User: Which sequence fits this backbone?
């Protein structure tokens, strides 16, 4: 059987964790408190752990002799399939939390469904990751409430971040051709079906945080097709630096 | 309290230390003991926090997923050590905010080694191998120090540090077993980190102001020079295994003493960095101050939210 669609399907999920983990890694040592610093680093660690499981599996499926690191570090920008949301920069702590919150709620629903996949490796990864992501979701939701129902300044900052990042949420529920194939094979999750629950769950937390739920007509998309924002090139430049500068070496 | 009562308390205190019993936060202690411990423990905590920066500098550029995960975990451990040590210091009657204030104003010091830049990936290996190696030599004796919270914190810190040190050495080993370019990278890192690592063990005994009192309180068990010799004796054979050269022409095994003789340390450089004029002193402090200032609104929000929640609970209870 041609596994190409499956490999792409895995990239689509794993690249979100990879790029968000990379963004969170930028924050280590710079957090507003030591406790938050430890927590965001921990989430980054969880995500990279998940990435390794996905990419090791993808490398196994591939007909080429490739490793997890080839997949992580040696693709061109157009070959990364993460959503635009996760590559957005760490503008301030409100954007960090807003981005995390909007992703975690999706991630949680995705992994919950992925436990029903016909692919047993993906089921195993989903089960393990779900424990971690439940914690991520609690962490980011709690901070949404703290910032929303904290001071005037924090409320305004988190509302700005949510308003700004909202345009990237619709893409979470798009299916690429490879995703559709994976769904047909009983392997992939039909993310379009998660949309309603997602917006309901997210709105509940925002309301509890005394924040406005944005109403938006126009959304941004592209990441899933490898068409990224201008931020992505710089992120990859950092991430790929060693592998590009010293090709073929062991570290 | 009468003079006699104080004298009596002092005697009880000294006897406890002599019996190797721990002093706990609620026990009576001389003011000087409290102050010395606040100074040393907060300095130690600050070193963990500032020490996150040179290594954190390579998280986004780590060369493989495995190395990235290990580095993230390591830097996170350092944050954990900082947290642990700040909490232990708080038991002596100073708040974490006050300690941060002392760090940001330059009143409190941190380990000078972190004022050197990490410019290649090999520096991450060298820091683990040499800097954590020197730190362990400094810290292992502290597991038996007289102040209970510090001693207990150090037991955990030392376990993790020795794991970090092995990890750092393994990075160096991989580089030294790699290509010529990688080996050169390792040698270059050793060249730059060797002397600052020796300085980490502190000024020579004749220039060290706190040694005598610290020995008495078991804050120190060996002198700086003894610790430095121990570090050199243990590290040189490790460099030999790596096949790279320690940058000291005078380094030589001395059959008679059973130790390595070594060259002159540039103490002018040491004092220059300690006094704030090392390659990265300004950057490190600026980064810490920025993180603190940019985080102010976040901490304010958390406090305000906690207050609101507490009010709600009170209202519900009424």
Assistant:
């Amino acid at each position: 059987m041609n596994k190409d669609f499956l490999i792409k399907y895995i990239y689509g999920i794993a690249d979100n964790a990879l790029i968000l983990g990379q963004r969170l890694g930028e924050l280590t040592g710079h957090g507003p408190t030591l406790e938050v610093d430890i927590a965001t680093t921990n989430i980054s660690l969880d995500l990279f752990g998940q990435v390794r499981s996905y990419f090791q599996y993808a490398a196994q499926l591939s007909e080429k002799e490739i490793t997890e690191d080839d997949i992580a570090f040696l693709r061109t920008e157009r070959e990364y399939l993460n959503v635009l949301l996760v590559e957005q920069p760490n503008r301030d702590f409100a954007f960090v939390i807003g981005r995390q919150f909007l992703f975690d709620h999706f991630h949680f629903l995705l992994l919950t469904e992925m436990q029903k996949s016909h692919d047993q490796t993906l089921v195993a990864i989903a089960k393990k990751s779900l424990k971690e992501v439940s914690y991520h979701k609690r962490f980011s939701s709690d901070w949404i409430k703290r910032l929303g129902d904290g001071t005037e300044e924090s409320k305004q900052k988190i509302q700005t971040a949510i308003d700004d990042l909202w345009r990237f949420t619709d893409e979470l529920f798009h299916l690429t051709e490879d995703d559709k194939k994976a769904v047909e094979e009983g392997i992939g999750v039909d993310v379009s079906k998660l949309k309603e629950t997602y917006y309901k769950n997210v709105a509940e937390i925002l309301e509890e945080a005394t924040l406005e739920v944005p109403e938006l007509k126009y959304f941004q998309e592209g990441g899933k097709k490898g068409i990224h924002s201008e931020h992505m090139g710089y992120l990859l430049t950092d991430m790929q630096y060693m592998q590009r500068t010293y090709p073929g070496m062991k570290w | 309290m009468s003079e006699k009562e104080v004298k009596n308390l002092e005697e009880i205190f000294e006897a406890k230390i002599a019996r190797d019993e721990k002093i706990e936060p609620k026990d009576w202690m001389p003011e000087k003991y409290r102050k010395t411990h606040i100074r040393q423990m907060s300095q130690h905590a600050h070193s963990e926090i500032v020490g996150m920066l040179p290594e954190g500098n390579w998280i986004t550029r780590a060369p493989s997923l495995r190395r990235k995960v290990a580095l993230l975990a390591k830097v996170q451990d350092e944050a954990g050590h900082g947290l642990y040590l700040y909490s232990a210091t708080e038991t002596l009657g100073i708040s974490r905010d006050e300690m941060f204030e002392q760090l940001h104003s330059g009143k409190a010091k941190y380990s000078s080694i972190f004022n050197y830049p990490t410019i290649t990936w090999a520096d991450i290996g060298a820091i683990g191998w040499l800097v954590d190696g020197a730190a362990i030599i400094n810290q292992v004796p502290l597991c038996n120090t007289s102040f209970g919270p510090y001693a207990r914190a150090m037991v955990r810190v030392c376990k993790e540090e020795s794991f970090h040190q092995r990890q750092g050495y393994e990075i160096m080993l991989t580089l030294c077993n790699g290509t010529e370019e990688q080996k050169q990278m390792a040698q270059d890192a050793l060249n730059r980190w060797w002397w600052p690592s020796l300085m980490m063990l502190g000024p020579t005994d004749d220039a060290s102001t706190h040694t005598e009192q610290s020995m008495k309180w078991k804050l120190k068990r060996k002198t700086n020079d003894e610790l430095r010799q121990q570090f050199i004796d243990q590290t040189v054979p490790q460099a030999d295994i790596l096949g790279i050269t320690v940058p000291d022409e005078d380094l030589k095994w001395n059959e008679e003493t059973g130790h390595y003789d070594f060259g002159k340390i540039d103490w002018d450089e040491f004092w220059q960095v300690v006094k704030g004029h090392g390659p990265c002193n300004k950057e490190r402090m600026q980064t810490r101050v920025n993180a603190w200032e940019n985080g102010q609104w976040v901490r304010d929000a958390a406090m305000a939210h906690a207050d609101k929640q507490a009010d709600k609970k009170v209202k519900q209870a009424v």
